[in-house]
## 1
Amino acid sequence: MDIKFSKEEQEFHDEIDEFLQRELPEGWADKPVTWPHDYASSGYQEQGDSDLAEAFLEKVIEKGWVKAFWDIGAERQAYSNMQQAIFDERMSYYRAPTMNSVTTGIVAPMLLRVGTKEQKEKWLPIIASGEATFWLGYSEPNAGSDLGSVRTSAVEDGDDYILNGQKCWSSGAHLTDYSWMIVRTDQEARKHQGLSFFIVDNKTPGIKMDPVINILGDHSFNNVFLDDVRISKDNLIGGKNRGFYNLMTALDYERICLVGIGGFKRMFEEIRDYVKATSHDGRPLSEKPSIRNKMARIATRIEVNYMLFWRTAEMLDRGEDPNVESSILKLTATELARDMAEIAMEILGPYGQITGNSERAPIRGLVSRGFLESISATIGAGTSEVMRNIIAQRGLGLPR
């Protein structure tokens, strides 16, 4: 694999980089309180930062970069997947405010792939303008790693479907407008053959959301109940009873778009700077072999994840199916988030337990947050165990 950018890709990289350095407020990278691959939906530290984030996103939309990744008229991507990856990497490195990643990284490309012409014309423009945001309506009390066990039902009634059931661990559902939801449209079919995708408006009568507070004390998840929720058949995406097959593709997109690979590099640089600037027993931490060894291990794994990230984008541009590769990337990135938090906690010692509320917290208290929150990254979008099974069976040809 040639991992060098083409002339066009390098120019795009430099354009994004210059834009971010120019348009982001000074010191912006210190404002978000998130660990790499963060599922916590955490806010900002200071009042007014949300307004700054919205103003910045308006500039991104004005540049046309959001909708540039889809050419709606030609029904294809306007930019390459490698350019999309470059955009995501630079944005995550600078911790720039982003549009909802579920919306732009999963729903939009899936609409482009399996939506009808009318659905693309309806949804893609309002996604690109930021008017429509989505949450993933996948998990249920008895359907997590095995999404073929989804029981939320959709029953035809004239020109509509009526939905009943429950979704859980619904990240950010209370902050978005619509759900990208998989439900059962054929109760008699085998479990992988009777599912379908729908777009469901959060404001539809019969939808109730109850907050679930995570280990950090944030409202990031929700239990969502659907009681006789009536939606139009026009909101059926990708064909009736084709949902599980479309879900496999959607999960590939999810495992790529949620990586935020640049955030790992940025977080590592902050830990490195702390190690270089901090002494213990009159000796800089950076001179201690045990610390140097830990840092070297993390640096190496970050480079490996970059290679996997670029390789997956390159495969998509060649028209290949990166099902195994996206699983490898998801597995290694989420376990890196967890392991980097554990090593940072070991380096900081008791200071790593101090939260961001204290002025004495190193690195703005991010290590204590990362130590608690990063565990969830190895579960969402498919557990590490599921990823290893995919790699073994589909990649290596091993038996079930």
## 2
Amino acid sequence: MSEVFVSPDEVSIPLVQPANLLEMAIEAGVAIAHLCGGRARCSTCRVRIVEGLDALTERTDEEAAMAAKLDFPSEVRLACQTQANDSVRLWRLVLDKIDVEMASQLGEGHYAGPVGREVQAAVMFVDVAGFTAMSEALPAYDVVHILNRFFNRAGDAVDSNSGRVDNYMGDGLLAVFGVDGEDDPAFSAVKAGLEVLAVAADMHDYVSRIYGCAFEVRIGVSLGEVIFGLMGAESSARETVLGDVVNTASRLESANKTTGTSMLVTEDVHAGTMDRVEYGRQFELELAGKDGHVVAHAVIGLTVPSSET
């Protein structure tokens, strides 16, 4: 017999005929949230389909609008708008009062954005070398001015290569490429990194002339699956990425100190861009938090002019 199996309740509901998921769950005594009464306005009845996605009806117009607003992946459905025609296994995503408050789209001041999804992306981590010494030698106003002058132009380099600045961390920035499905995120990240290095060289001329300090940056780039979503307290939540790919980019940035390079990328980035990027030495590195050696490649430049890529 067909069934709808609900986790984490571990309840099996017999499916005798096609039926609405929310109505079935309520009738079976499952404590599934539904603040708006099943009108696709609150999103608190959201569930993740573990098995049987093909056994469900297509999104209604109302569900499609909510899914677009919250960036639901295909397996996250509103139970109130979904009918099961065959066996389905699902997981309730709103389990308690805190979940309800965070998930509800009713009223003012609610979360609206990606609920969390895995995407293939390139991550670029940029850090200013010797920043601590610079910040101790210069007045606060000048330190902030220098960083903002650099961040402004570095951000332009990221934007012009279809990336987004994910976060600023003191004297560093984290940028991601591909989270919205852009093509060739690895090459976009490397190209943006080379433009950031050019900005840094320009900044060195500026900073050394005015302040008598050097200005250099180090860059690490990695590629792979990242988790992307809206994170943080509701009043300050923002879209961001996390995962091993982010950590690897950060570790590669730091590794430039020992390799004497300015920009290191992972083997996956190298493999996907070697026809358009000139690479120098290859390194086998021991990176904190990584088992074994990580192969890294030093970037020299593009093999063809930027206008031809």
